[in-house]
Description:
By secondary structure, the protein is α+β, with helices and mostly antiparallel strands. It has two helices and three strands. It has a three-stranded mixed sheet with strand order 1-2-3. The chain is globular.
Amino acid sequence: MPVRRIAMPSNAVAVVAPAQRLADVAGAVSRAGGALVVDNGVLVGLLDRADVARAFERGALGSGHPGPGADAGDS
């Protein structure tokens, strides 16, 4: 079966920037099931509901503490 038959339509996918705060994009990630992290038109990562849930469990949503792999300047 071709991937296109089961893939999420591109207009249903959230797209976020690496510098955006997780608290600001959590709703969009939750609604869409995930988000593409795009920096200057280049896909640099994927963010899904499980990532947001883990951050929430650690208290990282809105806390100003960067998540794993974040630069110290991102807080």
